[in-house]
Specification:
about 325 residues
Length: about 325
């Protein structure tokens, strides 16, 4: 089928939304808003309230009381939430860089341990329809991210040294993305060093930390690309542990939690943040943002159980 939809003027966008049942209290304000925030971007926030299964309904709103201003409230809530999560994840990313570099450099007595293939598991994956070596892909990603870096210390290394071909771990890990750091940790062989890092984050094993880092990296990318994080199903099913070093979630509650929704990943973020920065104000900031979500915000859509604030991780003061 050939795509044949024509672009719409902003006036026509408003007319289309109104025809579908969205209420506009002031179309001039709506016009100004849509001039700076695209119609298609807002579609992610109107979609859950529209009939998207019945072709004859033409995406009409399933309720007749939804206002444009309420959609904007929801959009603004999501934007504030992304900013909060991005800031929190930054602390986790920096802590991971630090622990990976320090633990392995000190234990291996090797400034360039991250290029030592023997430290990593032998695994294959599929890329472009072909089998590829996971370590080779990791090395390639690492090399590319170093080359893209504009950090002065990276430039200084290449100006001064010709060997090894890449900078030492304490420089390199500082410029790697959380996604690459997560892959690096996951691919490392199961060793006391790998377990040491998991334990330093208050987790019982490296499998759980690998899983959490993967999920948090996905969330971080959503935040970085200004994508919707409200009412989203995430691609990673998070492993929830009840035998963590610090308060998290009781065993009896884990089975009732949807492990691919925002509540699960934000609980993991808060747990790691509490370990890294015990005096953080994350909970208070989150509660403040949630109170600004407006009438359309339903925490259940984000995977929050009814008794979520009774869970040990959310009973803490910070």
């Amino acid at each position: 089928m050939k795509y044949q939809k024509k672009p719409l003027s902003i006036d026509k966008q408003i007319e289309k939304l109104e025809h579908r049942g969205l209420i506009f209290d002031d179309k001039n304000i709506a016009y100004e808003y849509l001039s700076n925030n695209s119609y298609y971007r807002l579609r992610a926030y109107t979609y859950p309230f529209q009939d998207n299964e019945n072709d004859d309904a033409n995406h009409r709103f399933i309720r007749n009381d939804i206002r444009f201003d309420e959609i904007i409230e929801l959009y603004s809530f999501d934007r504030k939430l992304r900013i909060l999560m991005f800031s929190a994840i930054e602390k986790i990313e920096i802590a991971l860089r630090t622990k990976l570099s320090q633990v392995y450099c000190e234990s291996m007595q090797d400034s360039h341990w991250y290029v030592n293939r023997s430290l990593f598991a032998v695994k294959k994956t599929s890329k472009n329809g072909k089998k590829a070596d996971c370590f080779d892909l990791l090395y390639s990603d690492t090399e590319n991210e170093i080359k893209r870096s504009n950090e002065d210390f990276i430039k200084h290394y290449f100006l001064k040294y010709t060997s090894p071909s890449l900078p030492p771990a304490w420089m390199t890990l500082e410029v790697l993305s959380l996604g690459t750091l997560s892959k690096m940790y996951t691919l490392l062989n199961k060793t006391p060093e790998k377990m040491q890092i998991a334990n330093a984050f208050g987790l019982p094993n490296d499998r759980i930390l690998s899983n959490w880092l993967h999920a948090i990296a996905v969330l971080r990318n959503c935040c970085a690309h200004h994508s919707r994080i409200w009412n989203r199903r995430y691609v990673i099913n998070i492993i929830l542990s009840y035998n963590t070093k610090y308060p998290f979630i009781n065993k009896k509650d884990i089975k009732n939690i949807r492990n691919n929704k925002f509540f699960t990943v934000v609980s993991c973020v808060k747990y790691l943040l509490d370990v890294i920065d015990p005096d953080n104000e994350f909970k208070g900031n989150l509660m403040s943002i949630m109170s600004s979500g407006g009438k359309l915000l339903n925490l259940k859509d984000m995977g929050f159980p009814e008794n979520w604030n009774e869970f040990p991780i959310w009973n803490l003061t910070n």
